[in-house]
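User: Structure tokens for this complex, please. No commentary.
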Amino acid sequence: MSWATTNAAPKPATPAWMKVIRPQHVLVALFLIAYPLVASPFWIVQIGAQSLFLGVIALSLMFLAGYGGMVSLSQMTVAGVAGYMVAVFGTNSTHPLFGWPLWVAVPIAIVIAVAFAILIGIISVRTAGIYTIMITLAIGVAVFYFAQQNYAIFNGHSGFAGLPGPEGFGLNWRDPMPFYYMSLAVAAASYLAVIYLARSTFGLTLQAIRDNARRMNALGFWVNLHRVVAHAVAGLIAAVGGLLYVWMNGRVSPGTIDIGPVIDILVIAVIGGLRHPVGPFIGAVLFVLMKNFAIDLISPERFNTFIGLIFLAIVLVSPDGLLGLWRMASDRFKAAGSNRQWSNSWRNNNSK
Amino acid sequence: MSLSRRNLLAASVALTVGFSVSAAMAEDTIKVGALATLQGAFTVLGEDGMRGVKLALQQHNMMAGGKKIELVTGSSDASPDSAVNAARKLVEQDKVQVLVGPLSGDEGLAVKNYAKTQPQVTFINGTSAAQDTTLRDPAPNFFRFTTDGAQWQAGLGEYAFGTKGYKKVVTIAEDYSFPYTQVFGFMSGFCKSGGHVVNKFWVPIGNKDFSSIVASIPDDIDAIYVALGGADAVNFLNQYEQAGGDKPMIGGSITVDQTVLGSKGKQQEYVVGTPSAGPIADDWDNAAWKKFVADYKAAFPDGFPSPSLFAHGYYISTLAMLDALDQVKGDVGGDQKAFRDALQNLKLDTPTGPVTLDKNRNAIASIFLTEVAKADDGHLYNKVIKVVDNVNQTLGIPEDDFMKLGAVSRDNPSCP
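Assistant:
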């Protein structure tokens, strides 16, 4: 945990956050902010915004898996619950139930999704490793079938369509630019929150539990409580991502939380890299680009095979995903070139 | 280190800008998108749909109205989300001017809603057959030349009641908008004739275990109406037969297809005599249809033994687009008004007879009433009993009365 030493006792003149910010961070931020000014609506929404909110949902998985050691496959389900609830309590055109305005429906949706995530946490924290994966997968599949066959609340296979996007400040937030910036704000907030949390007492405890739960238990920590709280935090992040998801499509149906999308979130997190919060976003960009353009690169009958091979190649070459590839490349560059001390936050954060 | 990152960023910025300006288009080509289910449970059906598109384009030498047609393919997995995503990519990124698709019922409803946000593009339905894609709240730029699932059942209810003498039936169908529409089409004729549908069973797509349904089929019925597709139909029939079920069957439009007719086992005998109805009939003795089948077989030796209704639907949709483009000499300028007027007024000659559009841009076409028969060499085929011409979306009922029947759903219509 060498970052603790780099951050400890900064010189009085420079605040801690200034030491963390590097030129590349500013460049990435500038690029992300300027991106909609140069891109077409398709690139703004379907590539840009979609990468951001899929990244947010995958970030919730990264938080659980990377810091908590709990690989939960039900993060898309939590996101879907938030999406479903905003349709149930808000307005929609297929199966109107409550029809409350969004400022009421959104908080309710988030609270229910987080409560659901806590429930998943309570059920799954006593398991570990592959059993966590199995039990969260089972929960995801159960919710999918429940949504598909329940008509009173979930409206079965058809689900809900005609969901309005949020409006306010004279803007329809579903228009490309506002939607992109809303997604960017959510992504940035979740990203910074995860970075902050990982360095908080809670985050440190969580990582210690990941590394040796029995020892933490012996030291007097309530291990399962920490894990459930981690599920709640991840649930909050996934829920907000889920709202963006259904607002982009204007609809939610069992297909949104089917086994395919559930696995997609894991794929995004794994190909991006589970070691740092930026990984899921990198993974999401690659995933969205592949989903949209692989069909143009190769015959329409084979493009899914092609996507699978690329993802397989990434994971084979680098178990840490694209993030690991990046680090391997930069390590080699450093070894060949300079001797300069390169303290990068994510790198140090994870060199244990 | 930050140097290399900066390079990467610069490269990605350049890439993005490059992509967004590459959409400029030559004047003498028309970009056409084709959207079908090339992944997921309906992959084989989507592939056959694409064969229909390609056949129509090949027959026109990839030209229409003096312009070259450039085809861009999109793929969905039968979920509405994926269909809209793929449509969005074709329309907003590839800048197609006409989009043919999608294939499945709920996809059609979603793409219709998306079409409303893209008034500059003309959407021509693939084979999606949910009723409300065009009947309620239609999109002005969405055209359907393939009729809907209720139209596909025209005449079946009357035939089952009158000729077959079935008075009480139960229905077993998949649980989404297309089978709802099919059951509606069957029941509108059957209930009017005096028949009763005592119970309706809805199963999820891809259901494997039908035992609970087989067990709850009552004894005092005359027949079962089955609107299941592909593997679902085969699974159901196997389990029904193993459980000792012996009630005769009435088939939906994609129930007694080649998968069922070609499968081996005792159900072979069982399905003989099953009536069904749909937009095509494999063994229709008609020159235009036979030519279409021959062309299909010649163009796609590895395709199905005979074109499915998906190949047929995508074929006539593409054909409609090409004919209309020919009429307007490839003019798709001015918000495509001339092109859309041509589509609206088209008298399309198809392998299954003439097709015209109603005011909601939904097809009025011929429907085939068939019955499974055994040929001399032992193979099963769908014998044409009757061709019902000019079936419109309200099934011959005056529009006001038809709208009063309400939107199709699991519970509507009902005649227990």
